[in-house]
Write a structure and sequence with these properties.
Blueprint: E1 3-6, H1 13-19, E2 24-27, H2 33-39, E3 45-48, H3 55-60, E4 66-69, H4 79-84, E5 88-91, H5 97-112, H6 115-123, E6 141-145, H7 149-160, E7 164-168, H8 174-179, E8 183-184, H9 187-193, E9 196-199, H10 213-216, E10 224-227, H11 236-245, E11 250-253, E12 274-276, H12 285-305, H13 324-340, E13 347-352, H14 360-375, H15 382-391, E14 395-399, E15 410-417, E16 423-431, E17 437-442, E18 455-462, H16 467-477, E19 482-489, E20 494-501, H17 507-517, E21 521-526
Parallel strand pairs: 1-2, 1-3, 3-4, 4-5, 6-7, 6-9, 7-8, 9-10, 10-11, 11-12, 13-14
Antiparallel strand pairs: 13-15, 15-16, 16-17, 18-20, 18-21, 19-20
Helix pairs in contact: 1-12, 5-7, 13-14, 14-15, 16-17
Family: Belongs to the D-isomer specific 2-hydroxyacid dehydrogenase family.
Function: Catalyzes the reversible oxidation of 3-phospho-D-glycerate to 3-phosphonooxypyruvate, the first step of the phosphorylated L-serine biosynthesis pathway. Also catalyzes the reversible oxidation of 2-hydroxyglutarate to 2-oxoglutarate.
EC number: 1.1.1.399, 1.1.1.95
Length: about 525
């Protein structure tokens, strides 16, 4: 008989679902890391919400087969360690989405109608109606950062308030945004034009501090920021500075830099300009029931039927597939991301040559997951990636290879965008006999033969005499050692130069290079 530990507070429906299929269940809440590591011994399943599942806990789970997060975010689970130990990690995307979306509007309405102050005032026996003039949501502009499950629901509710909705999400197509009646804009445009700005992106290396002084300085007079996602998305010091300097700004927060705990919150100094809640986004009976049911069903199906619902990690890699090809899909996707710029893709194509074509389904899943990770807009598994891309309006095409070209076991990935005209990038790569990831071609530049590693500068321009010397001189002047250079031209006398350097190229040196070379496209990346 399988045993499942529910280490969190869940709706009783979760226990019933598991027990009805003969699974032994124990509920034990509030366990710290050491206590959870001691308790997990002998259990095959673990269900959590915001509890931390660390390496110590996973290594102590001598019989652990699956961890289910009754919710979406898995930043509290050491997924890499779970994968190492062949432990399946699953989540329940969408279970809490409606509750969070509704809270966004609760915060907006509370601020616009000064409800917290009005409630307190009336209960004190006062009648300050004349001093509590508010404003409506109708006709205002709502900016949504992240148009995934929650962001798309927020957009739908906003239409009911007759608001104009603009949004930023690098991985949603213009056609899908149009269906949602959302106008895609840049972050600069959203911050300069919106009356309300709400954040619905995960916290990761790309989104941490993504909102800083530059964007905060563009916020229009009297605007409101609503953060029900993660506090660290907005730079802490820059937000404090903006709130001190701008007494017209409003803030709605369900999360705080200090974390989910008691104690004074440093944002509280703005008084009634802040509407604060103690991480209530998912705290509705309906959301708790949905998350509990979905989490228990996911655990039951895995332990009883070996069926995986909403996997976060993928343990099913074919034994005859070189895992380096999974890394290659991510590498090509990352170069393609920089190469096409921040334009929403409407189509992704993958072609696998030779014997590699038998694994095209697995590789496509890893490619799309890699792109989602790179754009950092949604946490998904390779198994769910293609379906989620289609939901976002991205067409995924698995092309039939022409093996007469003699490309061996290699892959070509094409990304197309229709935003602001037609844009396309096409990259082919392979694994060398030494096991290195190799980029053979980028767009029209053949025989590039690039082995990406470390710090890299990509520069595209018309070919001319002295080009390489100009870039080398700028790097040398900045005391940056050059480790390798790859250079080639196409039939139109365009050229690509890729410099691999010992340390990152600074913004100052990068600016000098662009001024001297005048490329039509350039970017920095690190592998």
């Amino acid at each position: 008989m399988s045993r499942v530990l529910i280490a969190t507070k869940l709706d009783p429906s979760a226990e019933k679902i598991l027990r009805d299929t003969g699974i032994e269940v124990e509920v034990c809440q509030g366990l710290a890391e050491d206590a959870l590591a001691e308790k997990i011994v002998g259990f095959q399943g673990l269900i959590v919400r915001s509890e931390k599942v660390t390496r110590k806990v996973l290594e102590a789970g001598n019989e652990l087969k699956a961890v289910v997060r009754a919710g979406t975010g898995v930043n509290t689970i050491d997924v890499a360690c779970a994968t190492e130990r062949n432990v399946q990690v699953m989540n329940t995307p969408g279970a809490n989405s409606n509750s969070v979306a509704e809270l966004v509007f609760a915060l907006m309405l509370a601020a616009c109608r000064k409800l917290a102050y009005a409630d307190r005032s009336v209960k004190q026996g006062l009648w300050e109606k004349s001093g509590l003039m508010g404003r409506e949501l109708e006709g205002k502009v709502l900016g949504i950062i992240g148009l995934g499950n929650i962001g798309s629901l927020v957009a739908g509710i906003a239409r009911g308030f007759q608001m104009t909705v603009v949004g930023f999400d690098p991985l949603i197509s213009a056609s899908k945004a149009s269906e949602m009646k959302v106008e895609l804009k840049s972050l600069d445009e959203i911050f300069g034009s919106s009356d309300f700005i709400t954040f619905h992106v995960p916290l990761n290396d790309k989104t941490r501090g993504m909102i800083g002084a530059g964007l905060l300085g563009r916020v229009k007079k009297g605007a409101m920021l609503i953060n029900t996602a993660r506090a660290e998305i907005i730079d802490h010091d820059d937000l404090l500075k903006a709130l001190k300097e701008r007494e017209d700004l409003l803030l709605g927060c369900d999360i705080f830099y200090e974390g989910d705990k008691e104690g004074q919150k440093d944002l509280a100094f703005i008084g009634d300009r802040l509407i604060a809640t103690p991480h209530l986004g998912a705290s509705t009976s309906e959301a708790n029931r949905r998350a509990a049911t979905a989490g228990a069903e996911g655990m039951r199906d895995f332990l009883v039927k070996r069926m995986v619902r909403y996997p976060v990690n993928n343990l099913e890699i074919p034994p005859d597939l070189n895992p380096r090809f999974l890394e290659l899909t991510r590498l090509i996707g990352e170069i393609a991301y920089f190469n096409i710029g921040e334009y929403q893709p409407h189509e992704v194509r993958i072609t696998c040559y030779g014997k590699l074509n038998k694994h095209i389904d697995v590789l496509t899943g890893y490619l799309i997951k890699g792109l989602m990770d790179i754009y950092q807009m949604e946490a998904i598994s390779p198994k769910d990636a293609v379906g989620r891309a289609v939901q976002r309006g991205i067409n995924v095409v698995k092309r039939i290879p022409d093996d007469s070209k003699g490309y061996g076991e290699s892959m070509t990935i094409d990304i197309l965008s229709k935003k602001e005209g037609y844009r396309e990038t096409s990259i082919r790569g392979m694994i060398t006999q030494a096991g290195e990831l190799k980029i053979n071609r980028i767009d029209t530049f053949l025989n590039l033969d690039l082995i990406p590693s470390g710090n890299m500068l990509f520069s595209y321009q018309k070919d001319r005499v002295g080009l390489i010397n100009d870039i080398s001189s700028a790097l040398s002047g900045g005391k940056i050692n050059i480790l390798n250079i790859r250079f080639t031209t196409d039939k139109e006398s365009n050229s690509i130069a890729v410099f691999q350097t010992e340390k990152p190229v600074s913004k100052t040196i990068y600016g000098k290079i662009n001024k001297a070379v005048k490329p039509y496209k350039s970017f920095l990346m690190k592998v």
